[in-house]
Design goal:
Radius of gyration: 21 Å
Number of helices: 18
Strand order of the largest sheet: 2-1-3-10-4
Shape: globular
Structural class: alpha/beta
Order of helices and strands: EHEHEHHEEEHHHEHHHEHEEHHEHHHHH
Helix content: 40-55%
Number of strands: 11
Length: about 425
């Protein structure tokens, strides 16, 4: 999933949403075995539609309602309001890696899943994924891991052919072992296909490279492990910023932020040719490109080596009136079986080793992406993922800096002053 996504996103709500949240919807029974309606708050493509129906079939007294928005930046202010007011949240809520640290500081607002059999589930998760869902003192299990986002590069095979580039994924990956070579290839592409930009915008490149650099270097990005702002002094951040800025200065991007309405529309056209692609991004591309994009997109390795972007946890707010039932649902959705189902539906790669090894995942191909062996591609990548520490204000800093980068491409911000402006904005956002 899901998911770190862009500012100013429109909500995309699915059918069957609950008007009132699980926390406010307490007229259902539950403890007495009566009917229970559980709301699950998610963003992006979580892949839960079908497995939620499966859960209802095996739990006839439970109705599961998914409440979904398209992006993290749309979701973030909503959950902040719900948690600060103690009202409005679903019975189960998704906490993305960028906002998880904030809510780890508010662990007392969530049900302790250790009290609902959580300890026995540790073996179902990658060790680092499990540990990130446990409070720093080790006493509370706040969230159970959903997916991880190993990084690849999605590209338009038809547009590469138009440019005279190789189109087979193994050959495509060889075009760009480094981001500098990726940039040079983009300049060559735009000379040959001038009506199409190389990239959608700077935000996806910035997020991917920050996490790549931090993972292979200090293990933290905007904040150190004591949650001090180190944006200006961390070379992993400066390198990622400089890389992203080069694409803006070279006019190689369409200056779009992922999952915004213009970005969604652009996917149906020939607006851009490449897109940094954590596994969950494939679900978004397929949804918004629709039938017109089938067979046009493919998946290759990303410049700069391994990395990841995104991944979430499911937590149960204490404001729910059905803590026991909500905990059981969260356990099911994050179980190996649940993660296999979510992968089948939305290409969200499991954080469960058992799920990753399931033939339905490991042997998966995507007809939409030219039969790309997505299970093997992302399975090979996830083995080298190194977790990155993110501070509680990570998402505020990220959004502020991305706005500066987009402003450069739009001609509103001088490129020579962009770094100092980003440092200034980062310091404001971190307060």
């Amino acid at each position: 999933m899901r998911r770190g996504l862009s500012t100013a996103m429109a909500a995309v709500l699915v059918g069957g949403l609950v008007v009132s949240c699980g926390g406010d919807d307490g007229e259902d029974g539950g403890s007495d075995g009566g009917p229970v309606e559980l709301t699950v708050d998610v963003f992006g493509e979580a892949g839960y539609e079908e497995i939620a129906k499966q859960y209802e079939q095996s739990h006839p007294n439970v109705t599961v309602k998914l409440r979904k928005v398209s992006s993290l930046d749309e979701y973030k202010p909503r959950i902040q309001q719900w948690m600060s007011t103690g009202s409005g949240a679903g019975d189960v809520v998704m906490l993305e890696e960028g906002i998880l640290p904030l809510y780890m500081q508010q662990a007392n607002k969530f049900v302790n899943l250790f009290d609902h059999g959580g300890k026995e589930l540790e073996k179902n998760f990658l060790p680092w994924k499990w540990q990130m869902g446990v409070s720093p003192d080790g006493k509370q299990l706040v969230g159970l891991g959903t997916d991880v986002g190993p990084l690849a590069m999605c590209y338009r095979k038809d547009l590469f052919e138009k440019a005279g580039f190789p189109t087979e994924r193994d050959e495509v990956g060889k075009l760009w072992p480094t981001w500098d070579e990726f940039l040079a290839k983009g300049q060559e592409f735009q000379e040959k296909v001038p009506k199409t930009k190389w990239l959608d915008g700077p935000t996806a490149v910035f997020r991917a490279t920050v996490l790549q650099n931090a993972g292979s270097g200090p293990g933290h990005s905007f904040f150190d492990k004591e949650n001090n702002l180190v944006f200006e002094s961390n070379p992993a951040v400066k390198q990622a910023f400089d890389t992203s800025l080069k694409f803006e200065q070279s006019k190689l991007t369409a200056d779009m932020s992922i999952f915004t309405p213009p970005w969604q529309t652009a996917l149906k056209r020939d607006t851009f040719a490449t897109l940094p692609c954590p596994s969950w991004m494939l679900g978004g591309i397929e949804e918004f490109s629709g039938d017109a994009g089938k067979g046009k997109w493919d998946v290759a390795t990303i410049p700069g080596g391994s990395g990841y972007w995104g991944g979430s946890w499911l937590a149960v707010p204490k404001q729910t009136k059905h803590a026991k039932e909500a905990a059981e649902l969260a356990k099911f959705l994050t179980s190996p079986e649940g993660q296999v189902g979510a992968f089948k539906a939305a290409n969200v790669f499991p954080s469960s080793p058992q799920a990753a090894q399931d033939p339905a995942v490991a042997g998966a191909t995507s007809a939409y992406f030219n039969d790309a062996p997505v299970g093997k591609i992302f399975g090979d990548l996830v083995a080298s993922v190194k977790p990155v520490h993110l501070g509680p204000k990570n998402e505020d800093v990220r959004a502020a800096v991305e706005n500066v980068l987009v402003s450069v491409g739009q001609g509103k911000q001088d490129a020579g002053e962009a770094w100092s402006k980003s440092v200034e904005e980062a310091e404001k956002a971190a307060r």
